[in-house]
Task: structure prediction
Amino acid sequence: MKRRLLLVSNSTLHGGGYLDHCQQNISHFFGKDVKRVLFVPYALHDRDAYTKTARDKFQTLGYEVDGIHEAPDPVGAVRKAEAIFIGGGNTFRLLKSLYDNKVVSEIRRRVLEDGVPYMGSSAGTNVSTISINTTNDMPIVYPPSFSAIGLVPFNINPHYLDPNPNSRHMGGLREGSMLLVEGNKATLLGTTKARLFTRGKPSVEYDPGSDLSFLLTH
Amino acid sequence: MKRRLLLVSNSTLHGGGYLDHCQQNISHFFGKDVKRVLFVPYALHDRDAYTKTARDKFQTLGYEVDGIHEAPDPVGAVRKAEAIFIGGGNTFRLLKSLYDNKVVSEIRRRVLEDGVPYMGSSAGTNVSTISINTTNDMPIVYPPSFSAIGLVPFNINPHYLDPNPNSRHMGGLREGSMLLVEGNKATLLGTTKARLFTRGKPSVEYDPGSDLSFLLTH
Result:
């Protein structure tokens, strides 16, 4: 499997600028071959302003950004994307827009079959997993399903704060942490630990640098 | 309209026992005529244990409790209920179970047409409004709709904590506060202020005792 994912918990970290805390990881991840990144701003209301924010940041890293909402055909835009970045905001609004624009399965196909690198931040990390069942966001709109893009076979709770004994979710990414997935290898990156929840087992803390590949095999 | 509602933000308040902080309001609300309360424990997984908790508390106040899940026919149980109490837990689980058991419209009919008193706590307050769009809970299951019982024409966010400038929800009930609705009269009760959000207007704080009847007329 060609899958390459960079799943970031949060886009800004205590006072830093947009994506500052993970910019080296972004440059590493997309590398020199990628020239243009398809940005999906569906999680926020003002798509133009959001795309400008992403574009300004990515240009400092040497990448051009295309907003998916600027393309006449969103599915076509996914079909020819070199790289995909889905930004944060409201997870329900994001997933509903992904379904409304019929790009869920095409993004999955491009990432899992064609190896197009996928970066997600916050809500964009949530929708990369099997479902949005572990979002902290308010359900401001009703998506046709809670099933998501399904690039990994577990759930992630971005902005993870406190252990909740009633929760069954699979993983908590604290602010400052991110998950790098390359094929069947998963590595925890960033500056904070992450917490793994597995039903029927005690939760476990993992340090940055930990190999979490076992999460990809069930 | 005969509607009588007691909508409580939270069932336990900083260290107190279950429903201790609002027990006088409960006695006032159900009064002497009500003998039995139909309890809806759908928001928690262990319905028997939850019903026992409610039963033990209500017995100290002079009311018998029937768990709706103990009845062979939930719709029939609603049809003959003297009073209804929907407890808190996970709002998504609660609303899905209400739909699965086909009791949403029957509860609405009994409360709005027959004047059966309705008490809600937390998730039970959420589902009494027009929709669950302002819940803080995790979407652990997928209900067939976010539309709720619709006993009032606005949203409530129980356990309200912080102003969120991106939110459009209509009202925040802080822990310790509750809303009493009698026909077309609404009164804020409890020990904490509540905050009203209206789209396009500045949010407004209301003290306990405030008349909020204007919320019922739009």
In short: Chain A has six helices and eleven strands. Residues 108 and 180 of chain A are 17 Å apart (CA to CA). The two ends of chain A are 15 Å apart (CA to CA). Chain A has a mean pLDDT of 92.
